[in-house]
Amino acid sequence: MNKKITLSLALLSFIFSANAQDGNEIDTAIKYGRYDVAKKELYRLIRSQPNQGKNFYRLGVIHLNENNKDSASFYFKQGLRAVKNADVNNIGIAKIGLLDQKDKEAKSKFNAATLNLSPSDFETYLVIANAYTFAPKPDFDAALDYVNLAMLVNKDTPEPHIARGDIYFAEKQFVDARRVYYATSKMFPNSLLPKMKLADVYRAGNEFEEAIKVYDTIVSKDPNYADVYKQLGLTYADYARFKDDRSLLDKGVENYFKYHGMIGESMDVDNELAAYLIKNKDYKSLGDLVRTKWYTRGDNFLMYRYRAIADFQNGKFLDAKESIDKYFDVQDKKEQILPIDYLYKGLSELEASRNEDGTFNEGVYKKSIQEMTKAVQDNPKLGVALHELGVDLFKDEHYEQAYFVFDLASKDEKSPYYVYDMYYKGNALYMASDKPMFNDQLQKAKTNLDSSLKKTPTFEAYLISARVNRNLNTQTSMAQMEKDYEGFINLLTQKGRANDAAFKDALIEAYTMIGNYNQNVNKAKAVQSFQKVLQLDSSNEYARKQVQNSKSTTKSN
Questions:
Q1: Does the keyword field hold Repeat (predicted)?
Q2: Are 39 and 12 in contact (CB under 8 A)?
């Protein structure tokens, strides 16, 4: 396979030659995360203008934002050798010092960066304040000192005032942050930035409706202000999760797409948009994005990965296998392949291993499970992602795929999700039992549910276990079915949820099945169970007939 497709690089070169002839355009590209675009132009500039230190600094900042500290350090040090604007690179080296918690070294470099500042330069002080505010070990006092220096230089612009609010915000003193942003908004009524910050505080406090109102006000003032659409996209996504209302996410996706349409083309922002859609589980939009970007992003290898995820989550499993195989094929640096990628690859290979009767080829099955198990072992944190992925698949009725995901997740008995992983694993097997993957599928389901109940009894596991035992339909399993339904009823009662409307149908099922089982075992218990059904549903004719038949039999005797 041709691993180097240069269409998009040529396209990006054209975009920058037309639109990024000065530092402001590069700074804008960096602000909006269009790092691939900015880097291409900066690499050209440091060759053609090796004496301009600020371009080395910009390149170092990009690498620092991409968590490439070694590369960032290299460019900052190169920038210090430049003739013009060399001092700014001390800020970059100081930021690395803060990341490495070398506070004295960082302070020394910040001092060097401010030694020869222009009398009107307040922005450099704010950059340093921001570095201290958001360092791994924040120093809010130092940040405030630099904000005050910026204020001395220029207090007639909103940025230093906002920086004071940012310190409160980072300290989670939301009331004080809100007070500062509100005052700044009144002081500078034509500036949108303090209004944005005020909305950010509302969002951080889960006051989503208030945040959206403020963002909408900003849109009405300036519909071309790109930043607000990103915040709306993030806020609606948070709100959707908070209220468990997927319809809110649609508005989030709409705004996030609008934001990306305004900031310019870039592979990096395409990837960032894809990450947003994956995080918020909008796989349909992810599939649309991949198809839209595919022909102009040929050398963006991550597009193979995103297409595989979209196809897998949308039930196109064989297409997913084709895409994930291509993604593995084009990767020159195998260390960039994530454990989750091995998971998708294994799951997709499983789908391709089906026999004509719907069961799986045993050899491919074992190989895929081994590969996916290795992915889990390489990254213990993957267990959480597995649980979430499995739940999503289960909710979307992809029961077979959900089973394999939970099978992997349940390898770790110390996982906080172990009990529910085993429950879902057994439930998935039960739900897929009409077209079994295994010859003993129901028995496998029972084993998994028994493990879940043994670890920690839950009413969900009792209910599904009862159904599995009912379907096994042996003398032993039917006796166990009764015990499971009774366990379900007792646990619901203990937790005070027996009167929840959500469990009414399940309780009717439980009492009905206990009644049916006991008609030839314990008639009094059977009648009592059917009477419980009538208490829950007085119109239940089946239960009424069973009670009447029992009374008739008693009278005749």
A1: yes
A2: no
pTM greater than 0.90 (yes/no): no
Single-letter residue type at 364: V
Q: How many helices (H) and strands (E) does the chain have?
A: 30, 0
Give the Cβ contact number of residue 83 at 10 Å.
9
pLDDT of residue 127: 96
pLDDT digits (tens, 9 = 90+) for 345-380: 887 877 777 777 767 677 777 777 777 777 777 776
Work out the angle between the directed axes of helices 123-133 and 103-114 (0-180°, nearest 10). Answer: 170
Contacts of 468 (CB under 8 A, 6+ apart): 426, 430, 442, 445, 446, 449
Residue with more model confidence, 186 or 6: 186
Question: Nearest CA to 491 among 468, 525, 465, 513?
Answer: 465
DSSP 309-347: HHHHHTT-HHHHHHHHHHHHHH-S-GGGS-HHHHHHHHH
Distance, CA of 41 to CA of 27 (rounded, Å): 11
Nearest of 81, 143, 61, 83 to residue 110 by alpha carbon: 143
Residue 11: is its pLDDT beyond 70? Answer: no
Q: How far apart, in whole angstroms, are the C-alpha atoms of residue 259 and residue 248?
A: 17
Residue whose tokens read 């100081």: 94
Do 11 and 265 form a contact (C-beta atoms < 8 A)? yes
Q: Stretch 476-494: mean pLDDT, rounded?
A: 95
**Which DSSP letter does residue 283 get?**
H
Residue type, 451: S
Residues 377, 454 contacting (CB under 8 angstroms): no
- Cβ neighbours, 10 Å, residue 445: 28
Q: How far is CA 3 from the centre of its chain?
A: 29
Q: How many CB atoms lie within 10 A of CB 84?
A: 10
- Which tens digit of pLDDT belongs to each residue from 280-331? 989 999 998 988 876 555 556 788 889 999 998 888 888 888 889 888 888 7
Q: What string of DSSP letters covers 469-538?
A: HHHH--HHHHHHHHHHHHHHHHHHHHTT-TT-GGGHHHHHHHHHHHHHHHTTT-HHHHHHHHHHHHHH-T
Q: Answer for the pair 91, 109: CB distance below 8 angstroms, yes or no.
A: yes
Structure tokens at 153: 């230089």
Report angle CA 232, 233, 236 to the nearest 5 degrees.
80
Beta bridge partners of 52: 84
Distance between CA 16 and CA 20 in Å, rounded?
A: 5
Q: How many CA atoms lie within 13 A of 341 on its CB side?
A: 20
Give the Cα separation of 287 and 313 in Å (integer): 10
Q: What is the pLDDT of residue 295?
A: 52
